[in-house]
């Protein structure tokens, strides 16, 4: 105890409890203030009840002694925060020489657990230059994971935790798995164990114990979390295959059995998995589906995301089944049913694996998909496809290079009328078409060019579009800007899912805003009053008789008024466009979009919606 306090205690002027607390604020001791950070007591004046403290954020701060007792808490000299006050250069040197030791010391001073944000607040600027922190932290995270002394979360929002006791690296890996509370974390823990199997060569029983728990966890989650369950079983099988001293218990759930029983749900379950994990699962398809495995794999080709598309194509090519995939894709192109991910793959591999698939049909399919997506409500699904068409300078030339002159002109005309592109982008894309097929130049010389068409729309649909635009500008874009700012703080942007997701949403919002502004500027609102019913026009009710005798009544309305349940057609839809200007007794041929079968319709009668 400080001599000044001992005298006051002996004289009976203070009691033992007060003396003990005052001793924590004696010169040379350390304390922590909520706002000013750590500090060192420089001197005190007991008669006047004043104490002077050098804080991190406020040097030479003079405080009332009673106030200091209430507002500060004591720090041990070895506490990380105390060392920041007096031994800052040593900590800076430690950050360079031993980042793991620095983080461990920091965690020990905070009870063994703290958030990444709190860690950054302690280190950035004081111990590590603020501009260098993110680079330092990326390197430190790798070293921490290798050391096994700290549990490093995969997401920034989860805390860092100091491992209890002096665990061996092997014990630490097993502990990570046992403490995992979800299947994805379990899978990551198994992958980490597989990478360091040499640690278990003298104790394979530790791994054998893990296998029993995996079976129960996966079986319980199949119904709700099929994807993570598949991922966990695949990681388990990878571990068993790599370590010869263990084997699956007889009652274990087999990955091939799970694949076979959940065939109808596989495409949705596999989409979110990594490329490597998807590949490992696809390699189990022969065991799961027998002679059908190639057909099952091609059936989900365009439904498993961009990573899955690439891995399925590689596997089928390696196994000598590329002809089956080619036939599947050529058929899908002819039916205009190929999706975004498969189209992107075909375009990127057009000079290699997909050379036998790439044709002029690809261009028609791309425009069809872009236009359909543009007319539908909800988030855009073809943004990456549109970006590829713009950024791949040779793609359009390669597409029209496979066409004759008439096909190229038709394609160019459709490109010029496609509502997805801005005027500037449309001209830029058309220039590439003309370079490959000079005969299409007439489309932009004034002979074949058409002005952007006016859209006839109902007043309610126009107000709905205006309300969406207003919401995007006033609410959704400002909120997205905040989301990007927050997500940027979550760490390494290369592995930052929240940041990538927010940036993708930013592209969607900006594209959607541009589309809405262009569409609204072209729109002409109407109540369909007085529509001419001598022929099919916008705002007429049409009774049709199909070739099989079925009678159906459709209402042809504005560009944004489609409602299949009410049999209301946009005049821009395939059936709506085919009916326009036709009269009673006329017959039209229309393709069923679901089955691709052509149907014949004869017009029975026409009436005005709003006479």
From TrEMBL:
Residues 461-524 form the Transcription elongation factor GreA/GreB N-terminal domain. One of its GO terms (molecular function) is translation elongation factor activity. It comes from the Bacteria. The keyword Protein transport does not apply. Residues 534-606 form the Transcription elongation factor GreA/GreB C-terminal domain. Gene3D superfamilies: Transcription elongation factor, GreA/GreB, C-terminal domain, Transcription elongation factor, GreA/GreB, N-terminal domain. It holds the Pfam family GreA_GreB. Keywords: Elongation factor, Protein biosynthesis, Transcription, Transcription regulation. SUPFAM superfamilies: FKBP-like, GreA transcript cleavage protein, N-terminal domain. InterPro entries: GreA/GreB_C_sf, Tscrpt_elong_fac_GreA/B_C, Tscrpt_elong_fac_GreA/B_fam, Tscrpt_elong_fac_GreA/B_N, Tscrpt_elong_fac_GreA/B_N_sf. This is GreA/GreB family elongation factor. It comes from Luteolibacter rhizosphaerae.
């Amino acid at each position: 105890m400080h001599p000044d306090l001992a005298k006051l205690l002996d004289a009976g002027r203070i009691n033992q409890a007060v003396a003990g607390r005052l001793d924590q604020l004696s010169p040379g001791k350390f304390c922590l203030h909520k706002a000013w950070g750590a500090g060192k007591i420089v001197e005190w004046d007991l008669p006047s009840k004043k104490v002077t403290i050098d804080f991190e954020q406020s040097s030479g701060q003079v405080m009332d002694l009673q106030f200091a007792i209430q507002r500060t808490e004591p720090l041990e000299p070895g506490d990380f925060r105390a060392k920041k006050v007096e031994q800052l250069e040593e900590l800076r040197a430690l950050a360079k020489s031993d980042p793991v030791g620095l983080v461990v010391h920091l965690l020990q001073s905070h009870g063994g657990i703290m958030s990444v944000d709190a860690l950054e607040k302690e280190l950035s600027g004081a111990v590590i230059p603020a501009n260098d922190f993110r680079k330092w932290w990326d390197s430190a995270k790798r070293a921490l994971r290798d050391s096994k002394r700290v549990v490093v979360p995969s997401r920034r929002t989860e805390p860092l935790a100091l491992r209890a006791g002096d665990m061996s690296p092997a014990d630490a890996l097993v502990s990570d798995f046992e403490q995992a509370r979800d299947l994805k974390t379990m899978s990551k823990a198994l992958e980490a164990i597989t990478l360091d199997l040499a640690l278990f060569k003298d104790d394979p029983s530790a791994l054998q114990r893990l296998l029993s728990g995996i079976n129960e966890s996966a079986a319980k989650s199949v119904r709700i979390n099929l994807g993570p369950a598949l991922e966990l079983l695949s990681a388990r099988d990878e571990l068993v295959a790599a370590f010869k001293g263990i084997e699956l218990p007889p009652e274990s759930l087999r990955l091939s059995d799970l694949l076979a029983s959940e065939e109808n749900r596989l495409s949705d379950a596999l989409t979110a998995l990594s490329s490597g994990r998807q590949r490992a699962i696809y390699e189990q398809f022969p065991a799961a589906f027998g002679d059908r495995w190639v057909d099952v794999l091609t059936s989900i080709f365009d439904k498993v995301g961009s990573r899955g598309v690439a891995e399925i194509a590689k596997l089928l090519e390696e196994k000598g089944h590329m002809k089956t995939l080619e036939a599947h894709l050529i058929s899908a192109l002819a039916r205009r049913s190929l999706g975004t991910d498969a189209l992107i793959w075909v375009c990127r591999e057009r000079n290699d694996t997909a050379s036998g698939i790439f044709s002029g049909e690809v261009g028609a399919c791309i425009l069809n998909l872009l236009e359909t997506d543009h007319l539908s409500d909800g988030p855009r699904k073809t943004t990456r496809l549109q970006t590829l068409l713009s950024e791949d300078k040779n793609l359009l030339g390669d597409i029209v290079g496979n066409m004759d002159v008439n096909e190229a002109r038709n394609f160019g005309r459709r490109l010029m009328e496609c509502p997805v592109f801005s005027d500037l982008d449309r001209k830029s894309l058309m220039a590439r078409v003309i370079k490959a097929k000079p005969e299409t130049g007439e489309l932009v010389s004034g002979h074949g060019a058409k002005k952007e068409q006016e859209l006839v729309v109902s007043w309610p649909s126009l107000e709905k579009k205006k309300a969406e635009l207003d919401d995007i500008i006033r609410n959704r874009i400002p909120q997205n800007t905040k989301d990007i700012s927050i997500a940027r703080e979550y760490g390494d942007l290369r592995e930052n899912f929240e940041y990538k997701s927010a940036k993708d949403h930013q592209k969607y919002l900006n594209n959607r805003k541009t589309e809405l502004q262009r569409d609204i500027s072209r729109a002409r609102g109407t109540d369909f009053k007085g529509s001419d019913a001598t022929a099919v026009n916008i705002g007429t009710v049409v009774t049709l008789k199909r070739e099989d005798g079925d009678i159906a009544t459709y209402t042809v309305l504005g560009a944004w008024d489609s409602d299949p349940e009410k049999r209301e057609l946009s005049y821009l839809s395939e059936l709506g466009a085919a009916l326009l200007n036709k009269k009673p007794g006329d017959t039209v041929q229309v393709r069923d979009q679901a089955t691709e079968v052509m149907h014949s319709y004869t017009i029975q009668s026409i009436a005005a919606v709003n006479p």
